[in-house]
Each structure stands twice: as C-alpha cells, then as structure tokens.
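Q: Please design a sequence for this.
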C-alpha cells in the first residue's frame, strides 16, 4: 500500500500558531526594550484582553518566550519576565573575556575584504541606531558584530556558547549603554577593532576587545549594585 499522506494541520491550529507567533514577537520587543522589567508578571487574561484574542495563543506565546529565556513560568504566578542577578552578570562577562579575544586571534587572520566591509557596515548601522536612540536594535546589532568578528575561528562549540552569552546579556548591555552614557565609547571601540584587524594588528585588536568587554561588564555590575542598594 502507498504511504498515507501526512495529516494537514487543522486551520484553527494554524491560525493559533500564526497569532501566537505574532503575540510572542510583540511581547519580545516590549521585554527587550525594557517596557516589561524583570520580575513583572505577564497575566494571560490581561494580555488576552489587550490583544483581543483567546488565552490559547497567549499561552503558546508565553511558552515560546520561556524557551527563549525571556520569561519563567512560575507556579501560582504564571509567566514572569526573567532577569539576571549581579553574580550572573559577572559570570557572563568573565566568560566572554576568556572566550572572545582568543577566538578573534584565530578568526581575524582569515578575514576577506568582504568580511571587513560587512563588519564596517555593521558598525555604521550600530552607530546610526545609537545616535537615533533606537534602543531595541542595539542588542541585535551588537550581537551580530561580536559573532561576525569570531565567525572564522572554526570553533563552533565556543561560538554557540558565546551566542548564548550575548543573548543573555542583551537587555543588561542596553541598560549599561543607556545608564552609563557609554554609547559613543562602544561605537568608537567597535570601529577601532575592525580597523586594527584590517591593518593586521590582530593582537592589539584582541586586547581592545578584551578591554571593551571588561569595561561593559564592570560598568553594568556597578549599575546593578547601585540598583540593589537603592
């Protein structure tokens, strides 16, 4: 007998998946831009009323956000926006300091002219987003820049770890840039790192990358400590 044709998803199920994806994207942006701060409870009934939909796609959207590490499903509280402790922030940046500069030493010698142009383009996009105050774009552009710097290191497991660390510190990094006024410094250092790589001064680029990450981590930890002391 010929194999049975795969069962098509019911139209209602497809509609729910489409709606839940749209809701997840909307909530993701509000979490990332700081509208929903860490610790805020996202109530399914309130969100369903706000979006004018049933609770089913809301629940599916919150599960998607939990998988992305943006919310935690807590018994008796529902979905709560996740956040980082001071110790977790310190750990993330210490790991980045250990991993990223050595990988840049491996990656940068393999840059093509096209790679350098792409990195320059990212720095321009990043600088424009900073100047325009487009906070929601800072994290993604910063993440892309750091990963593209390291993409030719041929260390896929290390890159996977770094990608996760960059995602985890996305919101805190934007907080650090906004609260510390380090916007111009971050932009300038990105540009300098690319210029050093292009000039073949790889060790200097790695040293600057290390200092760049260390400064962001130290500044962010100070902000967290002030907030907890308030």
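A: Design:
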């Amino acid at each position: 007998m010929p194999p049975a044709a795969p069962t098509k998803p019911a139209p209602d199920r497809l509609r729910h998946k489409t709606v839940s994806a749209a809701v997840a994207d909307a909530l993701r942006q509000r979490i990332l831009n700081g509208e929903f701060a860490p610790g805020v409870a996202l109530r399914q009934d309130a969100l369903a009323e706000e979006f004018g939909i049933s609770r089913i796609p809301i629940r599916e959207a919150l599960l998607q956000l939990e998988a992305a590490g943006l919310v935690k499903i807590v018994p008796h509280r529902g979905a709560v926006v996740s956040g980082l402790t001071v110790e977790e922030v310190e750990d993330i940046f210490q790991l980045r300091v250990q991993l990223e500069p050595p990988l840049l030493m491996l990656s940068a010698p393999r840059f093509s002219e096209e790679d350098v142009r792409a990195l320059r383009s990212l720095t321009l996009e990043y600088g424009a987003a900073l100047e325009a105050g487009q906070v929601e774009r800072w994290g993604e552009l910063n993440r892309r820049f750091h990963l593209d710097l390291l993409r030719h290191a041929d260390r896929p497991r290390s890159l996977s770890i770094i990608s996760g660390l960059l995602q985890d510190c996305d919101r805190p990094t934007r907080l650090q840039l906004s609260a510390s006024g380090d916007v111009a410094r971050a932009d300038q250092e990105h540009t300098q790192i690319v210029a050093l790589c292009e000039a073949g001064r790889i060790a200097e680029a790695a040293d600057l990358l290390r200092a760049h990450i260390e400064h962001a981590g130290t500044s962010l930890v100070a902000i967290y400590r002030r907030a907890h002391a308030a």
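Q: Thanks. Anything notable?
A: Residues 11-81 form a domain with the Arc Repressor Mutant, subunit A fold (CATH 1.10.10.10). Residues 32 and 171 are 6 Å apart (CA to CA).
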